[in-house]
Amino acid sequence: MNQQTPHDTDGDEDEGMASELMQTVFDPLKSGLAVSQNQFATQIDFSVLEAELYQPQRRLPNAKLIVIDDHSASEGEVIRIRKREYTIGRTHGDLAIESDLEMSGNHAVLHCKLDEGSFRWRLTDVGSTNGTFVRVAKAPLTEGRELLLGLQRYRVELQDPDNAPPAVGEVRVFLGGAVGAPPVQQPLRLVNTADTSQTYQVLSQRSMLGSNPKRCSVVIEDRCLNAEHARLMYKRGRWQIEDNDSLNGVWVRVRSVWLDRHAEFQLGEQRFRFFADGQVPS
């Protein structure tokens, strides 16, 4: 005699109920949402809602990583990260980019952690040769910090004004600050890491860096620099760089950093865009 298991009974009940269930899917128009459509995608405006959109309460939030295409500033391969840790490298990791010889075999890791009550993603360099860079709107310039500007990398050197060497050889000195402005207490030098003979010494409290000699006091010949690319400022005894809404940005080398919900970083010669949610678990 065949005996019916509880599982089989549940299945029979579901089959019997199938004719009574009226299944459905999300319909933005029925939900009263504003919908617009173009040739690429349907845009839904969730700003006018009577209820909050459903969000998972206990699992880790998803993140989206875009591997930016060559000759693009924002578009590329989209990867959904659905795990706590995601590794990137040239030969090893969840994402391996073998074609990028500037990337180390194991280069960096993205790690989702709970920080002050919300989930955040941390980007950590795992001992790569050429470093990990994040795009910044502004950043302090400390001794030894590395910058990526245009096609070149620069090392920050802060000097004692009494011991600053004279401008000789390839060193370019920039004084053009405001009239009557006092000299900075600690002159700044930017040294090209690939060619240390290319050195830029800045003595004024406020300078514009870029490719146009008529509009900048710190002039670097680089086709990937804007005419006015970034500001160098000396405030309250500290140097700072500030991006001037440039096309290719200002990038700072990091060992480990919390990423904002929207961020960009570079490993080797590959640039990435990162998007994350930070829902708090209940």
Automatic annotation (TrEMBL):
PROSITE patterns: FHA_DOMAIN. InterPro entries: Cell_Proc_Reg/RNA_Proc, FHA_dom, SMAD_FHA_dom_sf, YscD_cytoplasmic_dom. CDD domains: FHA. Residues 86-139, 207-257 form the FHA domain. Gene3D superfamilies: 2.60.200.20. Pfam families: FHA, Yop-YscD_cpl. SUPFAM superfamilies: SMAD/FHA domain. PANTHER family: NUCLEAR INHIBITOR OF PROTEIN PHOSPHATASE-1. This is FHA domain protein. It comes from Roseimaritima ulvae. The lineage of its organism: Bacteria, Pseudomonadati, Planctomycetota, Planctomycetia, Pirellulales.
